[in-house]
Protein: ATP-dependent RNA helicase
Amino acid sequence: MDPFALLRGGLRFDKEKDDKVRQIFEADSEDDDSTSQTLVVKTKPKGKKGREASKRRHDDRDDDDDDDEDEDDGAEDVHQDSSDEEDDDDELEVDLDEDEDEDDDDDEEEDGEEEDDSVEGRLAKAKRIGPKKVRKQHQIQVKGDDVPPPVVAFQQLSDYDVPKVVLSNLCKMHEKPTPIQMQAIPAMLKKRDVVGIAPTGSGKTCAFSFPLLANLGKHDDSGIRAVVVAPTPELAFQIKSELELLSRGSKLSIQLLTKANVGNVAKARQRSHDILVSTPRRLVYCLSKGLIDLAKVSWVVIDEADTLFENGYETQLDEILHACANREHVSLFSATMGVNLVINFDFPPSANEYIHRVGRTGRAGRTGTAITFFTTRDAPILRSIASVIRASGCDVPDWIFQLPNLPKKQRSRTVTRATISSSAAAMMADKAKRRAWAEKQRAGKGKKAKRGKKKSGGRGGGGGSKKGKKQGAVDLAE
Ligand SMILES: Nc1ncnc2c1ncn2[C@@H]1O[C@H](COP(=O)(O)OP(=O)(O)OP(=O)(O)O)[C@@H](O)[C@H]1O
Structure:
């Protein structure tokens, strides 16, 4: 069994045991030396200038669609704010080796020079400073193994053996890549699953559309090979348009699934289409009626993943992923993953750690949402985390409780409480108790205290007594 599952407070998972379901979000535990397929790429506009440019790009787009204006303006604020907040988010915390002050130093270093923004100038500078500094300067954060270098010019993509016509379209459409494109495009061309997080209007559509087309290469008649899912018909239409612009002159065929054309798409048996773009609802409807066959799909992109996860589309996403039984690559793009949402891409190592993480979503009596991806490898700890979820009042399927439990020694403390917040309070009280105990140990002059200290191996000494271990296990303090 290799279930791909989403836990949203309660729990969702592939209804059937699908051994083809890929582990798209591998736990990157330290003892796992396999290379993680998933790469998290997160960017934010650089300073005020960048934010203004991003907003300008976005406003340009809004000119075409007045209906979206209010909604998008709101989203701009939310995404920018949350992007800043995410800096202290463990779940998506990424590999910034140095802090932003150092970025500023880099900028100052360059201030003396006349910035050469030609393709040659950018390439020369990238060569001089190396990929790490390029990422820093463009506020690109990455998490994952074996990350391909960011590209500073689209021309560099010819190294990836991409179809010439698609690359030429890209170069005609845009002068240079945006930060999310700089990193996500080469990553997807390397056939990595990408979780791309970048602000609204930062060019995410192109960041996945180009590599999707490039990876598909030529049109073939075997059936739909890629699916892009977006939350609204308008967004699905925009994605289809971008894909069409980028694929002009190639024979690749892009199909938007709409109410009106469902019949036609079904009639053509999808042989003539390479990419299908749809909202989850419409696609699931077609699947349920047997109108669409996604068995040949190897690429799945979920756009605006945050919106989809937050608005109750998990069941549909489950069904779509399940229908794409032979898929090889799944990527998620989103303007933000933050706010009241915690996504555990790596499975929490204990129930305590799970509570610690999801506690971020529901502080001060507020409700929140937690989504946890798990694979078979996580089964040993799944049961105790499922107990926590059930205790907080959510539905958990019974099969999870039939999984073997961890031996008592290895199990973290069982958490029994009505809500996550009350549990957090109990654990903090427990922590205070332990702190007092440790204080007593330190202060104690008597034989008993000395003996206790010796037994626990001292504070923070990894392999100490049970109490010593507990000391470092949980930190729920804000
Ligand atoms: N490299 C680029 N240079 C300049 N403009 C670009 C570039 N890539 C995309 N754009 C333009 O920026 C605008 C916003 O792009 P896009 O819609 O892909 O952003 P997004 O990140 O998907 O936004 P949202 O989160 O709202 O969906 C579009 O008009 C697009 O054509």
Q: What stands out?
A: Residues 341-403 form a domain with the Rossmann fold fold (CATH 3.40.50.300). Confidence is low (pLDDT under 50) at residues 1-36, 53-109, 413-427, 455-478. The radius of gyration is 25 Å. Residues 57, 60-61, 174, 177-178, 181, 198, 200-206, 335 surround adenosine-5'-triphosphate (CB under 6 Å).
